[in-house]
Amino acid sequence: MTVPKEMPEKWARAGAPPSWSRKKPSWGTEEERRARANDREYNEKFQYASNCIKTSKYNILTFLPVNLFEQFQEVANTYFLFLLILQLIPQVSSLSWFTTIVPLVLVLAITAVKDATDDYFRHKSDNQVNNRQSQVLIRGSLQQEPWMNVCVGDIIKLENNQFVAADLLLLSSSEPHGLCYIETAELDGETNMKVRQAIPVTSELGDISRLAKFDGEVVCEPPNNKLDRFSGTLYWKESKIPLSNQNMLLRGCVLRNTEWCFGLVVFAGPDTKLMQNSGRTKFKRTSIDRLMNTLVLWIFGFLVCMGVILAIGNAIWEHEVGTRFQAYLPWDEAVDSAFFSGFLSFWSYIIILNTVVPISLYVSVEVIRLGHSYFINWDKKMFCAKKRTPAEARTTTLSEELGQVEYVFSDKTGTLTQNIMVFSKCSVSGRSYGDVFDVLGHKAELGERPEPVDFSFNPLADKKFVFWDPSLLEAVKTGDPHAHEFFRLLSLCHTVMSEEKNEGELYYKAQSPDEGALVTAARNFGFVFRSRTPKTITVHEMGTAVTYQLLAILDFNNIRKRMSVIVRNPEGRIRLYCKGADTILLDRLHPSPQELLSTTTDHLNEYAGEGLRTLVLAYKDLDEEYYGGWAQRRLQASLAQDSREDRLASVYEEVESDMVLLGATAIEDKLQQGVPETIALLTLANIKIWVLTGDKQETAVNIGYSCKMLTDDMTEVFIVTGHTVLEVREELRKAREKMLDSPHAVGNGFTCPEKRPSAKLPSVLEAVAGEYALVISGHSLAHALEADMELEFLETACACRAVICCRVTPLQKAQVVELVKKHKKAVTLAIGDGANDVSMIKTAHIGVGISGQEGIQAVLASDYAFSQFKFLQRLLLVHGRWSYLRMCKFLCYFFYKNFAFTMVHFWFGFFCGFSAQTVYDQYFITLYNIVYTSLPVLAMGVFDQGIYTSVLTFFIPYGVFAEATRDDGSQLADYQSFAVTVATSLVIVVSVQIGLDTGYWTAINHFFIWGSLAVYFAILFAMHSNGLFDMFPNQFRFVGNAQNTLAQPTVWLTIALTTAVCVMPVVAFRFLKLSLKPGLSDTVRYSQLVRKKQKAQHRCLRRVGRTSSRRSGYAFSHQEGFGELIMSGKNMRLSSLALAGFTTRSSSSWLESLRRKKSDSAGSPSAGPDKPLKG
Questions:
Q1: Handedness of CA 1042, 1048, 1051, 1052 (dihedral sign)
Q2: Where are the alpha helices (DSSP H) in 498-593?
């Protein structure tokens, strides 16, 4: 093995990794990472990425070329540039070049300003993050440096509540044994704290001088996006120490309850796991944009066809007729044949007819989108008064896409829930507490409740804790042994750490918000957890301090779904206390008494039906002899070299049996206000909602029931938890079979054959009868997203009404969104509030950020932002619908009026020798879309037959003018009079058309429509006035033409006839359609009119009674390993910092408005036979 010169010889003796060659890391070829502490010169050789992040697209030098390049990728912009070049050729153009260059420059400028503004805010956000201050150890002293100057190999100091600046190897901390507590909400959405620990050889490096001499080198895996894995080795002092994820602090985490810690930078900037998971910023284009590009291509093809027809006509006319008039109409010098004349005529007509798709279309689209974005910003119903936060449209290009959303992908924590755990109800020895009843025995609603329970008797009570049922406190005060044992269990069976700053000021360090809520409840009811050591727990029971000997903690994990403690009380009695999932604990109870079990089960059903998170509590007395033997067996199992976990589980299983049921707890993980109603409305709108969360399965399922995504009326909820490809494929196959075989019938009544071709499976599955839901875990999803199984997963998931993906990484969230985008061709929306949601927000067609408790990363990456999930229904069902309908009507009307305008040139070509002469003068052509019809069409427009209108607009005046005379008997027909008549007819027809189809009249509509008509006549008379002729005699030669033409009654009769013939068929058709076959919108509009004339009737929602189905409400966001940590005593030194995150906060209840229960008689549930409690 070759040892590099820079590597100390002593490390070579300790052993080195096999590959010492160095690759460039920044462009994907890095195979391993090397970082030597306090040695920037050595680390700079590897050219690692700096800690500066960049989400912006442009800088001052690249903005103009890059932005123009992007804009000219739009088909329309390239098309208009091509037309501009044509107009610069004198032999081809019959219109001035300014008619195209001015609108083109205007469109490019507006888009460039918008893009520059968006990128400015990205630069501003980047600068804010990159200039956060960090304490870096440089040349033996701590110096304040901005984040962007932090380099790989630097040692930095973090203090409590600070964000981690880069991916760090934890070296030491203020806590014993190098422990520190972090919150990973920005990474995985979980706000419960996690523990990280420094390796023993560095945990004592607490002072600056020793850290400055630290020269260890880390050799580890290259940058990747795996949040839960890290593999590396530290070489220091002839030692080779393995490193794992437990030793790492990742960028985006927040240091909690730890005064300080030191870390070695391993990954910086774009190499950090947070940035590796953030995904690339994608250019989002709406379906309307794609449709417009397609329409431009089709219309350009139509334009070419018309140009060919007219060019052929020109060649024939010049060959047959034009040669006779050479003396009067000579060809240009470059024209030497009829064929070449036709060729030039083709390009001339391409220029003249290009107004079918004028560039003003794109200006108008951007103006409409800008208006819709301001409507969202100004919407008072999307303003959160509590946070003083309005809704914000951070983009102006996606408003109409909101009305086409089919799939919503939502985060859970902080998006659907507030992540505030509240001790809501409990069942103690067969009696349920938590509901309040009035004097008539009816259950009181929240607004009707009396004052909350007064805990002033307890000086150690948490003042923020609120409970409404006073009977529970009375039971405790009167010495009910079951109530005392219930709260004794809650005060002993946990892994919470207690801190007391001042006398009586207790702060709890809870590893999960569930435990914090339970221990706080026990504290307020008189059983105050005061302190602990590795072997004791001290509880103040009704004012008396009692110290229990802690004999064992049987730790929680996802398989056991329970935790237990074994304690010895001061009298010497040994008792096991256990809390866990009802599905697990109810099977481990002593067979009697059955009545208590039945009553508690009913209470659990009731709590689960209300969406509460439930735990069952039980206890068991142990004698000294049995405990001694069991403790010996446990010790042997813990020392086993193989199958240690299985052996411990077997020993735990042995003691956790024949327990006595004590009761159950019900904790409310408070949903955000209006979540169930919003999900119900979106489901009615045929929008499918998928929840993608980093939380555990039980918690996510419980929230699914709370927010009514999952219901007890569903046919079946499929749970996929396979750990291998084969297991996942089999579980998905069984789910599809159950959907198809119940009972072999689809929703439309057709029978499905047993063998079905896989290609037709999606359509068959999506038609199945019944409502299904799918719950899949992260490790199963990893297999399901593989190329050979992703379609099977998608088919199964899309056939379900609700999908919940648990324990998913940020990258998996993006992969699920991309899968639906790719194969379903549906518009997707992703909504979240944390940095772990950024990737899916960027991937979805529309990204929505919730400005919640997990920072602003999601908001910065989003297209729309607001403070509560409930505003999503208004964003989609109100603003989205309005934007989509308005944009569709606008496009249809725009093409209608421009076809009507442009096709007149086509018909005129047959009467002007195909000479590419225009019917209208060039000022009318220029102003038609910019002034005369722009404002009305911005107000609203609908589809009609444009070619039909153009035929009538041209041929009716043509027919009249062929024989008509003026008042003095002279011929009426001349070119300018004909042009004025056709132009006036056209403007009046399109204005009347839009007036007929305006569904909601406002002053703005009236002003735009009739004001545009007035502006047309004003400009028309001005252009034919003496004043303009005197100033510009070469430009305005037809003095008085408009006045003379419009003074003739024949002209006004022609205009009236043209308008009537164009409009009457449309009016007649719509009248018949409304009378004979009204649409849904017509019916709704009629119902609204009827409702205005009648007195409003209020209907009360009645709560649907629960079925007798049994489901668990168990959910417990706890992490394995804390029990062992506590028993080891490693975290026993009390920190001087407070944990405030878990405390319950009062919040107005939203649940009552939707789920009013039927009034039922007040009465205590029948208590089961009491088993005497000892001690």
A1: positive
A2: 513-524, 582-585
d(CA 499, CA 83) in angstroms, rounded, equals 76
532 is in an annotated binding site: no
569 annotated as ligand-binding? no
Cβ atoms within 10 Å, residue 311: 25
Strand partners, 169: 248, 264
What are residue 1065's phi and psi, to 5 degrees?
-60, -35
Asked whether residue 251 is marked as a ligand-binding residue, the answer is no
Active site residue 582: no
* Total Cβ atoms within 10 A of residue 907: 16
Omega before residue 743 within 30° of 0, cis: yes
Q: How far is CA 1120 from CA 225, 494, 1072, in A?
A: 23, 12, 71
Question: Is 515 known as a binding-site position?
Answer: yes
Distance CA 229, CA 782 (A): 15
Q: Which two tokens stand for residue 79?
A: 């098309």
Pairing of strands 536-541, 544-554: antiparallel
pTM above 0.70, yes or no: no
Q: Which region holds residue 146: left if phi is over 0, alpha if psi is between -120 and 50, else beta?
A: beta
Question: Annotation-wise, does 695 bind a ligand?
Answer: yes
Flag whether 605 is marked binding. Answer: no
- pLDDT digits 0-9 by tens, 795-816: 999 888 889 998 888 888 889 9
For residues 324 and 119, which has the higher predicted lDDT (pLDDT)? 119
Determine whether the annotation assigns residue 413 to a binding site.
yes
Query: Residue 1100: pLDDT above 60?
Result: no
What domains lie within the chain, and their CATH numbers?
150-278 (2.70.150.10), 370-415+671-739+770-880 (3.40.50.1000), 423-439+449-670 (3.40.1110.10), 882-1073 (no CATH)
Q: How confident is the model at residue 935 (pLDDT cuts 50, 70, 90)?
A: low
Q: How many helices (H) and strands (E) does the chain have?
A: 40, 33
Residue 553 has pLDDT above 70, yes or no: yes
Where does 721-824 show beta strands of DSSP type E?
Answer: 772-777, 802-806
CB atoms within 10 A of CB 633: 15
CA dist 744 and 731 (Å) reads 19
Written as six digits, the tokens of 867 are 């403070």
C-alpha distances in Å from residue 760, one per residue of 291, 756, 765, 795, 816: 28, 7, 9, 10, 22
- Residue 1036 phi, psi dihedral angles, 5° rounding: -120, 80
Query: Helix (H, G, I), strand (E, B), or coil: what is residue 498?
Result: strand
Quote the CA–CA distance of 469 and 435 in Å, as a whole number.
6
* 734 in a known ligand binding site: no
Distance between CA 291 and CA 758 in Å, rounded? 31
Q: Is 751's pLDDT higher than 60?
A: no
Residue 556 assigned ligand-binding role: yes
What spatial distance separates the first Cα and last Cα of the chain, rounded to whole Å? Answer: 69
Given the residues 271, 411, 514, 669, the one annotated as active site: 411
Total Cβ atoms within 10 A of residue 1023 = 20
- The answer, yes or no, to whether residue 528 has pLDDT greater than 90, is yes
Cα dist from 74 to 114, 194, 358, 515, whole Å: 16, 49, 14, 56
Token pair belonging to 965: 């005379």
> Under a CB-based contact definition with an 8 Å cutoff, are residues 616 and 685 in contact?
no
Average pLDDT over residues 588-596: 85
Listing DSSP states for 453-487 in one string gives P--TT-TT--TT-----HHHHHHHHTT-HHHHHHH
User: Which positions ≥6 away from 352 have C-beta within 8 Å?
Assistant: 94, 95, 905, 916, 918
DSSP 879: I
Burial 775-804 (b: 16+ CB within 10 A, else e): bbbbbbbbbbbeeeebebbbbbbbbbbbbb
Q: What is the Rg, in whole angstroms, of the alpha carbon atoms belonging to the chain?
A: 38
